[in-house]
């Protein structure tokens, strides 16, 4: 099963500029926030994480809403991303999911692939 999502970086940047911390904390986990804030092109990175949440939601298909805090991106030591699901999502979808991220100035893409048994 595959899910993909593309998002305009500006959409996330405008949300953050308008609503600030409240907007960020609604959509992203503390770890995701720390990662984005500590790297260059933070709006691209926030947008990519938003795209991953949508891509993973496409893979899982059913589940609770909103799910922003239930689908979190972390980065391994080599920089590659992995997705961590909340307990309540793991109950619905207990399968490994691989993700990939890409972002440029205007767009960010998130892709998710799952391997249900
Ligand atoms: C590091 C690398 C991903 C950068 O790619 P880029 O085109 O400059 O940037 P992109 O926007 O497309 O990708 C950036 C995202 O790649 C992901 N990434 C970083 N290191 C990665 C890695 N080792 N493997 C897979 N994904 C990686 C991250 O999710 C990053 O976004 P984030 O920091 O917001 O999480 C790329 O050089 C790469 O794939 N390196 C690892 C593989 C490699 O070196 N292969 C060589 C032999 S085939």
Q: How many distinct beta strands? A: 5
- CATH domain class: Alpha Beta
Structural class: alpha+beta
Q: How much of the residues is beta strand, in percent? A: 25-35%
Unreliable segments of 5+ consecutive residues: none
| Tally of alpha and pi helices | 5
Residue share in helices? 40-55%
CATH superfamily: 4'-phosphopantetheinyl transferase domain
Query: What is the C-alpha radius of gyration, as a whole number of Å?
Result: 13 Å
- Overall shape: globular
Going by CATH, the architecture would be Alpha-Beta Complex
| Overall average pLDDT | 96
List bound small molecules.
coenzyme A
Question: Could you name the CATH topology?
Answer: Ribosomal Protein L22, Chain A
Query: Strand sequence of the main sheet, in spatial order?
Result: 1-5-4
The H/E string reads EHHHHEEHEE
**Oligomeric composition of the shown chains:** single chain
For the biggest sheet, the summary is: 3 strands, antiparallel
* Total separate domains: 1
Report on this structure.
The chain has 117 residues and is of the alpha+beta class. It has one domain: 4'-phosphopantetheinyl transferase domain (Ribosomal Protein L22, Chain A), CATH 3.90.470. 44% of the residues lie in helices and 27% in strands. The protein has helices at 9-19, 21-27, 30-37, 42-60, 87-92, and strands spanning 2-8, 71-75, 81-85, 97-103, 107-114. Strands 1-5-4 form a three-stranded antiparallel sheet. It has a two-stranded antiparallel sheet with strand order 2-3. It starts with a strand and ends with a strand. Coenzyme A binds at residues 45, 48, 75, 78-81, 101-103.
